[in-house]
Amino acid sequence: MSSVHVSTMINGDEVDFVCRPDESLLDVLRDRLGMTGSKEGCGTGDCGACSVTLDGRLVCSCLVLGAEAGGHEIETIEGMADGEDLHPLQQKFLDHAALQCGICTPGFLIAAKNLLENNPNPTETEVRYWLAGNLCRCTGYDKIVRAVMDAAKDMRKGHRNAA
Amino acid sequence: MPLDSENKTIVPTEFKTVGTRPVRPDGMDKVTGRARFGADMSAPGMLVGAILRSPHAHARIRKIDTSKAEALAGVKAVITSKDLKAQPGCDMDILVNVMARGKALYDGHAVAAVAAVDMSVARKALKLIEIDYKVLPHVTDVDEAMKPDAPVLHKHIEHDYHQDMLETADHVKGKNEKTLPPGKRPSNIAGRYQFGHGDPKKGFREADVIVEHEFKTEATHQGYIEPHACLANVSSDGWAELWVCTQGHFMVRDTCASLLGLDVSRLRVTASEIGGGFGGKTTVFIEPVALALSRKAGRPVKVVMSRDEVFRATGPTSSASMKVRIGAKRDGTFTAAEAILKYQGGAFPGSPVEMGAMTAFACYDLKDVKIVGYDVVTNRPKQAAYRAPGAPMSAFAVEGCVGELAEKLGMDAIDIRLKNAAKEGTVSSYGPTFGPVGLVETLEAAKKHKNYKVKLGKNQGRGVASGFWFNFAGQTCTTINLNIDGTLGLAVGTPDIGGSRASMCLMAAEELGIPYDQVRTIIADTSSLGYNDVTDGSRVTFASGLATIYATRDLKAKLCARAATIWGIPEEAVDWENGAARPAGANAGNFDPLTLADLAEQAAATGGPVAGHYEVNADGAGPSFATHVVDVEVDPETGATEVLRYLVVQDAGKAVHPSYVEGQFQGGAVQGIGWVLNEEYIYGEDGRLQNPGFLDYRIPVCSDVPMIDTVIVEVPNPGHPYGVRGVGETSIVPPLAAVANAVSAAMGVRATTLPMSPPKILAALNNKMRQAAD
To answer: pLDDT tens digits, residue range B486-498?
Structure first.
């Protein structure tokens, strides 16, 4: 099976890679580019652990082909902090103890960031439905929801623009 | 679902650091994607391993031909059970579970494996392995499996049906046991356990009211988000390394060495970050396979399970079939209790029925009580521990009967439990006498909580249930090293799943009187620390915490000795106080305190490195009790259940990091909600699992649940220097019963079969309407 050459932007950087036509974007990120922050929990788009954004749209990277990423902009967990400055969501997840084992955390953070970019003032119910594609088995979701609501509140005060 | 709940701790503490809520030390890596989990490691020249699994529930393997797979370009090794020879003293059940030999015992049982240059080649190779199966009759239901004429999985497991007492002989229904020949015969009944005391027959004669029900629960999976993963590297001179997500890397080392015939000292195992376990990562599945592939290929081999493999071939918990009977006086005093529990262990003996039997009535002070448990094998994956293994199912049955007794006697659901609650001095139903325990405190706190006072509406119901878990202790070993700058490195041997590194840092800092962030806790590999038992049994904060405290005290004594050397005074004349060595009283002399940094600076001149150690086979784990209160609304049109509010009250002994104690409470409650309302292993008539994925095996998602209110009760455990009890497991014991009691109250029909999924609720409501019409 011949490989495909792909040019893309990942977390603001120009990235070229080659992959097989049947390789998922998640496999490319993890196995070819060494970006293992996105996790594979199911491989079928049911758990959200591999969440990334593609041109600003929240997707499961296990359901996107690596070859499809050509010409598009991808954001992953590795690009969420600005140098040493954590994104408010990352800081709130730490402050609220919103992670236990931590395997789902990158996916939740990407999904929550995408939520706040689309809806800076979500209700608890809106948070719950937006994050319903991300499975967490440890926390019971309580502290995750609190962290997202708290981050949204701070971000509305202008601590850092969501967009 | 309003965001108005609050989490609080009842008992004030006298600690400075313990009981605070600092950011966990591994948090930064986990929110930035830098943390390395099982599948995140790679090695130069690495191959990928893949496993071929049986498509049959029960089949004789007549022949395996791997020649075509071996000939495929890119394939570097193919193994079958021939490459995993039985070693003297190894656990044959684990060996056979890792790779089938002779028979495939369940859908998903591993039969062969390949190592190839990439996954594409590996998958092609698996398709080229030819296996000649003779499909055999199978059994996946626990009641069916107990019948004398059921398909038998293992000829060496025998049972004498005549030995069963009459009241426990439900498994021979439909076939008169007296017609069976006497003596033992091959059977799927692998074990029988009995606990209790007194004379239940007498106790039931004294009862004014007796409640009796039969209950069934389906198997559920631990559902950790991280599939099993490992990277094995066996060198040609026999030294081996393994990187693995596990709850116990010492267990992995010893088990793998035993299965593969390796010297234990030649296998070094490093625990990766672990993406959940809940008991399901307390054994081995792919690790021996990866090591065997690496040994054969001469290259590192990474094996990562797919989600389908996780469901089909790793431990769900047992399904259970139970009968419970409780008698009570009119004032609510229990006079007698009996239970018969039948748990399936999957394809091998070892269901947690013994613990289910021990915990069934542990919440209550009973004079006359008897519990009988049966361990049964079926054509399902070998069950693995799942959070308080065995206890949630028996609690579901017992607490269901307690709830119904309260209704029949017109008593408050908490009052009836308070009247019978186990307390200090109670002889437990499984034998030991309880020391200080906090069940009464949890019940009283639950009764006072605002959730218990909310008025319910139409189609709504409230459920209450209590639960118990022993908590474990076990072999534990830690080392704390003073660094050159006065900070500390703490090495523990128990993988951190839910935040234990933060707890260890807190306890070490508390002992030394220093800031939390001056201690860094790492999980040492198996070559760097003495043996540690697995992170299970809610033992880590208790046992590793205890070892951390005593290792730190050992360090403090040595630091005082160093200060004494510097000051030229006796060791006894030095105290450690508020982060520094100080002269003990006026007679010791007048010296400025020496901090950790001061002592570290002078370490070389005063005897070299300073470290504290502690090794122990700990005991003294204190049991933990919990009481849960839940309100639900059942939609009579769809059969869907909405959880309106949920309260967890549990005794933590001492909450070292309250946020993570609350997290354990909340996580356990939501897992329980999934178990009671939705999650189940569904088998087809062919014995194959029908729902091996997160789409069809649906664990609760964020929009399924409300905020989970928590109250931490602190009744100190005298077996721990800080009073700590384990908390991780008790929180999943009451939810099945609590939610089922709430659903029962909302429906007006007793829920006895889990999960209470919408079709079952609709059927129960329709049945109720039919009966009312008749």
So the answer is: 999 999 999 999 8
Give which of B598, B518, B587 is closest to B565, Cα–Cα.
Answer: B598
Residue B2 confidence (pLDDT): 36
Cβ–Cβ pairs < 8 A, chains A and B = 195
* A window 108-147, beta carbon within 8 A of B: 109, 124-125, 127-129, 131-146
ipTM beyond cut 0.85:
yes
Q: Does A96 touch chain B (CB under 8 A)?
A: yes
Q: Is B524 helix (H, G, I), strand (E, B) or coil?
A: coil
Residue type present at position A2:
S
Of B32, B669, B695, which has the smallest distance from its Cβ to A140's Cβ? Answer: B669
Which of chain A's residues have a Cβ under 8 Å away from the Cβ of B704?
132
The beta-carbon neighbor of B275 closest among A96, A103, A145 is A103
Which residues in chain A are closer than 8 Å to B499, comparing Cβ atoms? 97, 100
Q: B673-728 pLDDT, tens per residue? A: 999 999 999 999 999 999 999 999 999 999 999 999 999 999 999 999 999 999 99
Is B7's pLDDT higher than 80?
A: no
Q: Given an 8 Å threshold on Cβ–Cβ distance, is B226 in contact with A41?
A: yes
Judge whether A60 is closer than 8 Å to chain B, CB to CB: no
Contact B375, B345 (CB under 8 A): yes
To the nearest 10°, the Cα dihedral for B70, B73, B76, B78? -20
The crossing angle, in degrees rounded to 10, of helices B391-409 and B658-677 is 80
Report the DSSP beta bridge partners of residue B37. B273
| Residue whose structure tokens are 């997840």 | A93
**Band of residue B178 on the pLDDT scale cut at 50, 70, 90:** low
pLDDT exceeds cutoff 60 at A162: no
pLDDT digit string, tens, across residues B539-567: 999 999 999 999 999 999 999 999 999 99
d(CA B559, CA B580): 9
Give dist(CA A132, CA B701) in Å, integer.
5
pLDDT of residue A7: 98
Residue A71 to chain B, least CA–CA distance (Å): 24
pLDDT at A50 (0 to 100): 98
pLDDT of residue B62: 98
Distance in Å, alpha carbon of A91 to nearest chain B alpha carbon: 8
Of B24, B32, B276, the CB nearest to A77: B32
Does this model's pTM top 0.90? My answer is yes
Q: Are B319 and B341 in contact (CB under 8 A)?
A: no
Instruction: Report pLDDT digits (tens) over A68-107.
Output: 999 999 999 999 999 989 999 999 999 999 999 999 999 9
Does residue B329 sit in helix, strand or coil? coil
Nearest Cα of chain B lies from the Cα of A41 at a distance, in angstroms, of: 5
Q: Of residues B649 and B13, which shows the higher confidence score?
A: B649
Q: Do A39 and B278 touch (CB under 8 A)?
A: no
SS (H, E, C) chain A: CCCEEEEEEECCEEEEEEECCCCEHHHHHHHHCCCCCCCCCCCCCCCCCCEEEECCEEEEHHHCEHHHHCCCEEECHHHCCECCECCHHHHHHHHCCCCCCCCCHHHHHHHHHHHHHHCCCCCHHHHHHHHHHCCCCCCCCHHHHHHHHHHHHHHHCCCCCCC
Out of B42, B225, B498, name the one closest to residue A104 (CB).
B225
Helix (H) or strand (E) holding B250: helix B249-260
Helix H or strand E encompassing B747: helix B735-747
Task: Tell me which H or E stretch contains B633.
Answer: strand B624-634
How many other CB atoms sit within 10 Å of the CB of residue B124? Answer: 17
User: Does the structure show a pLDDT above 50 at A151?
Assistant: yes
